Amino acid sequence: MRRAICFLFLLLLSGSLLGQAVRYDEGRKIWLLSMGASSYAMGVDANNHLRHIYWGSHLWRTEDLTPPRPLRDGSSFDPKEMFENEEYAGWGGPRFYDAALKLVRADGNRDLVLQYASHSVSGNELHIRLKDIRDDINVTLHYRVYPSEGVLRRHSTIENNTRAPITVESAQSATWHLPAGEGYKLRYLTGRWAAETQLVEEPVHVGTKVLESRKGHTSHGINPWFSLDDGAAGEESGRVWFGALAWSGNWRITVEQTQYQQVRVTGGYNSFDFAYSLAPGETLETPAFFAGFTAGGYGAASRTLHRFERSQIFPGGLNARPRPVLYNSWEATTFNVDEPGQKALADKAASLGVELFVMDDGWFGERNHDRAGLGDWTVNPKKFPQGLKGLIDHVNAKGMEFGLWVEPEMVNADSDLYRAHPDWVIHFPDRPRSELRNQMVLNMARDDVREHIFKVLDKLATENNVRYFKWDMNRAVSEPGWPGEPLPEQRELWVKYVRNVYEIIDRLRAKHPTLEIESCSGGGGRVDLGILARSDVVWPSDNTEAFDRLRIQEGFTQAYAPQVMSAWVTDVPNMNRRSVPLKFRFLVAMQGALGIGANLNEWKEEDFTLARQMISLYKRIRPTVQQGALYRLMSPRHGEITANQYVAEDGKQAVLFVTRHAQQYNLPTPAIRLRGLDEKAVYKMEMLDGPPAMGRQQPQAPVSREVSGAYLMSQGLNVFLRGDYDSTAVMLERVR
Ligand code: DGJ
Q: Does ligand 1 lie within 6 Å of residue 472's CB atom?
C-alpha cells in the first residue's frame, strides 16, 4: 500500500514537472514538445514563418523560451531567410539552400513561400498547417511525441488545393535544427554487400554531407540513421542527437553546417530522379522521420531507439514473442533442396533445440541455380513430390515451425512469369534491361503486379502451414522506366513501388495474423524503420563470419534493437578464409536473434554437444538479450577485446559476452566494468567456463560468486581469455 501511494505521488510529481507532451503558449505562439528527458520547441515570427527554437534536454517552462526574433539581412548576399531556421521551408524567396519542399506549377512557376496558417493538437500529436503566401498549396507538419520513449516523430503532408496540377520535385519529411555551433561529430552507417552497417565518425564542417540511397531499396551502402554530438560525447556520456528515417526506397538525409554556424539535418524522399504529380485535391505523404536527444552518450541514444522500436515500431510491440531459435538451409544446401535432404537437416536441427526451420532458395519452379525460376512460385514436384506438405508435416512433428524463402519482387528471364509478362519488369522501351544475378525487377508500382504477388503469397500461406516468410530482394532497381504510364507519373515508381511492397506485407499479415516476416535484401539491403514496422526480424548481412559480424553488429545496434538482428552460426572456414572456434561463433550469434545456418550433415558429435549447451543457455538469457538494455563496453574497432552486456528490463538478469580476437604479448584481459546494474543489489555470477582462475591473472577478482552491483561497475570483472578467438559469457542473476 505504501509503495502504491509512493508510486502515485511520484507519478503526480513527474506529471506536474514534465507537464503535457504538447504545450502551446498562445500569447507568444510557441510550441513546446516534451519527450520525457528531452524537449523540442518552435514558434511563429512576425512574418508568420515557423521557426525552430530549441532541441535538447528537458525544459519544463515555455516562459524560458524566446519567440523567434525578427532578423536583419546580413548583406545583400546573405538575406535574413538564410538565418531563420525554418521548420519546413519551401523553395522560394531568397532561400539558397535545399529546402524541404520544391515544386513546379503547371504554368512553370516554382516559387513557394510557406507561412503558418493554423494548428491543432490531439493528445500527443501536433499538426501545424502551412500555406503558400498566394496559392492554396498547403503543407501539414505532423509531430507525434512519445513521452515514455523519448522520441519525436515527424512527417509532412503536401496538399494541392489549387485548381491546376503541380509536380513535387523534392519532398522532405522534416528538417531538424541543432543548437548553432561548430565542432559537431557525425556518426553514420556505411558499408556494402557482405560488409553492412560499418560505423563511421567524422567531424562536421561547413558544407553538406549527403547520406542516401538511389537504388530503390534502403541499400547496403548507407543506412538511414544518423547521430550527431557536440564533439565531446562517448559511449556513456555526452549530448547526442540522433534520428532514423522510415523508408525502404530512395531516401536522402543531408547533414549540413552553414557558413552561419547553423547545423541541420533534412531527410525524406531522395529528390534524385524524383517527381510526384498532384492533381487538384491530391496529397503526398512523406515518410516518418524519428529523432531524439540524450545527454547520456551513444549508448543511451541506441537504448532509446531500441526501446522505442520495441514498443512503437515492431509488429506485436512489447508483447511480441521472443524470436525463436531458427535454422536456415541456405549455407548448407544452396539451391540443392529436396524433401529427403531438408528432412534430414530438420531432424538434426530439432535435436539441437531449434524452434523454427526455414527452407531457403531453390524449392520452386526450375530454380536449380540463380539463372532460372524466379517468379514461378509453385513447388518443384521433382524435389517435393508431396508438395510442401510432406516436409512441413515432418518439421511440425519435430516440434518446429516452418518458414519459407521467397523473392516476390524479382523474375528471371528464364521463367514462365517473364515469358507471360515481359512488360511487367521495370524497363525503358527499346533499351537494355540489366540483369543482376540474372534477374530483373518486377514493377511493383503497378497495381496488377501488386495483386499478382499478393495472390501468390496468400495462396502459399493459405495452403501450407507456413509461419514465416523470408522475403528477399537480391538486386537494386535500374533503368526505372514505366512504359505506358504518362510522364511525369513514371517517376512515381520510386515511391509507389515501396508503398505496394508495404501494402502486400500489411495485407498478408492482416489475413494471416500469425505469419511472420524476415526482411532480407541480399543481407542488410533493406533494414529501416519502414520495413521494420511490418517485419519481425531482418537479415543484417550475408557475411556470417563471426569476427566480421562483431563490427556489423556494433553498427547495426546503433540504430536497431538486438531482437530483430538475426545472427547465424555457420561453418568455417568462412569469409576471409577465417576459422574461428564454434564457441566463439555461438557467443557472437547469441548477441542477437540466434539462428543456425551450418551444414549439420558435416558436424561432429562434439559440435552437436556444444551447440545443444549453447542453445539451451541462449533460451535462458534470450529475453535479456532480445528485449533488454544493451551496453557496448568494449568496441571491436579498438583493441583486441569486444565486450557487450545486456541487462533485463526488470533488472533481474544481466549477461556479458566477451570475445578476444587476438592475443599479443601474453597480455591479460583487462577488467571489464559493467554498467546498468543496481549498485545496491547483489548478483550471483555464473561463468560459462567455470570460476575465474583466481590469483593468476585477476588479483582483484572477487572471491565470492556473489558480487555487488557497486563492485561490478567500479572494479569490474576479470575474465580469463587466452589465445586468438577465445570467448566467454558471464550470467548475473540478482539475488537481493
Ligand atoms: C540472399 C540472402 O541474403 C541469402 O541468405 C539467401 O537467402 C540467398 N539470397 C538465396 O538466394
A: yes
